[in-house]
């Protein structure tokens, strides 16, 4: 493998419940893209999504972009079976890196603290990240048209960064896709389900936040 001149890419993909399984499956699109571009990639999958693995890679490897997928709260991001990965005590691990956390609420406190402690940029959600899915598609998450409305705009941000775009450009592309899907639902046949989904698409877009150097990129 000939690696690109970009810094490395670390991705966490726990799969211990329906939520993390969906996030992991959609995040693999970003992983495959990074690998196809020759970006050195570190995939912490399933039970490898634990603190010692994250620490080892972030301390020893040249990583420029970190993509977390999993449960979280205002001050922490978790991995396999909700084990802690990053919190306000070890957030220094994100120093000089671009981080994107598809994780509830971590953008509220943890994201801002990471910038104070030297992170290059942090994108996340300052409240719950909510998505709907079709239970009949649980074995094929990336073919789930309902989940796609929420997860495609979210993962577009990571894909855009991997393509070499700036933090601001990636954030704006994700934002636009959320808006487009919101309008798509409003313009379709009105139903209680569509109205609810549209409301939460708007919610996710509004609560997606970006801190730090918006001109930063992986290059």
CATH topology: Rossmann fold
Number of strands: 9
**Rg calculated over all Cα atoms:** 16 Å
Query: Order of strands across the biggest sheet?
Result: 2-1-3-7-8-9
Distance between the termini: 19 Å
Biggest sheet record: 6 strands, mixed
Mean of the pLDDT scores?
Answer: 95
CATH class: Alpha Beta
The low-confidence runs, each spanning 5 or more residues with pLDDT under 50, are none
Tally of structural domains: 1
Q: Which overall shape is indicated by the principal axes computed on the Cα atoms?
A: globular
Secondary-structure-based class equals alpha/beta
Beta-strand level of the residues, as a percent range? 15-25%
In the CATH hierarchy, the architecture is 3-Layer(aba) Sandwich
Indicate the topology.
Layout: E1 8-13, H1 18-36, E2 41-45, H2 51-60, E3 63-69, E4 72-73, E5 76-78, E6 84-87, E7 98-102, H3 110-116, E8 121-125, H4 145-162, H5 167-187, H6 192-206, E9 208-212
Descriptive report:
The protein contains six helices and nine strands, in the order βαβαβββββαβαααβ. With 219 residues, it is an alpha/beta fold. The chain has a single domain, classed as 3-Layer(aba) Sandwich (Rossmann fold). Helix 1 (18-36) runs parallel beside helix 4 (145-162) and helix 4 runs antiparallel to helix 5 (167-187). The model has no long low-confidence stretch (mean pLDDT 95).
What key attributes describe this structure?
single chain; 219 residues; alpha/beta; Rossmann fold; six-stranded mixed β-sheet; three-stranded antiparallel β-sheet; globular
